[in-house]
Design goal:
The chain is an alpha/beta fold. It has one domain: Alpha-Beta Complex (2-enoyl-CoA Hydratase, Chain A, domain 1). It is 37% helix and 17% strand. Strand 2, helix 1 and strand 3 form a beta-alpha-beta unit.
Length: 254
């Protein structure tokens, strides 16, 4: 399995731990992982013993490095339909309204924002960094930028999206701009997220889920409009394959 689930991470507390488990690929999401995530979120809808969830990645090198670019995604022949396997990897995309707290160690980039953007809040270790490499590779950042724009002030979201691989946002800067709500010492993000999840899981679940649904409602209208535009921007702006001679520039931390 490429995703591990501990449905009783703290015995009897109602907290589940979901862990992306492809450390050899920096926890990148391939097609089996995308399907597994969707199945996991939908299974939690029926599991009354789970009241809050922590999402993380194996190891300290990466939370998730986005979509695994070695994967080939079959596309339908219709010019009006584009399949993006990451659109269904998040809890909200699967109609799950139990709170999800993300615990980030190492890098979180590109398609990782599909997951971070559908989490209630993010806790990161000091060793965590955030970036979006799309523009560096001549690609449109559409869905990722939508999530970023909902999580950050416009200028911060635009800078991450446009600077590409040339710049990584540190956990400290992410905390200052509101992307991250708590910064821990390296290796301690999961424990901090589990503690927070225990608190939330201890409250009456109907009130918690209703609050999650209300908060998400604030985002939905703008997100739906942006997502409606995204496939057209990607079709217009993305080359059929990465252009020759595109190299990743040296990056600096911010």
């Amino acid at each position: 399995m490429t995703v591990r689930v501990d449905a009783d991470a703290v015995p009897g507390a109602g907290v589940a731990l979901v862990t992306l488990d492809r450390p050899e690929r920096h926890n990148a999401i391939d097609l089996p992982t995308a399907r597994a995530l969707a199945d996991i979120w939908r299974s939690f809808r029926q599991d009354t013993s789970v009241r809050a969830i922590v999402l993380t990645g194996t190891g300290t090198r990466a939370f998730c490095s986005g979509f695994d670019r070695t994967e080939q995604v079959p596309q339908p022949p219709s010019p009006y339909t584009v399949d993006d396997p990451l659109l269904t990897i998040g809890p909200k995309a699967n109609d799950l309204w139990k709170p999800v707290i993300a615990a980030v160690e190492g890098i979180a980039c590109g398609g990782a924002f599909y997951l971070l953007g559908e989490s209630e809040f993010i806790i990161a270790s000091r060793a965590a960094t955030f970036f979006d490499p799309h523009t560096t590779h001549g690609m449109v950042s559409a869905y990722e930028s939508t999530y970023l724009a909902q999580l950050l002030p416009y200028g911060e979201a635009a800078r991450i999206a446009l600077m590409g691989a040339a710049e990584r946002v540190t956990a400290t800067r992410a905390y200052e701009t509101g992307l991250v709500t708590e910064v821990t010492e390296p290796g301690e993000a999961v424990a901090a997220a589990v503690r927070a999840a225990e608190v939330v899981a201890g409250y009456p679940t109907a009130g918690v889920q209703g609050t999650v649904r209300a908060l998400w409602g604030v985002r939905e209208a703008g997100r739906a409009r942006a997502f409606g535009l995204a496939p057209h921007l990607i079709e217009l702006g993305n080359p059929p394959s990465p252009g020759p001679g595109i190299t990743r520039p040296p990056y600096r931390l911010r």
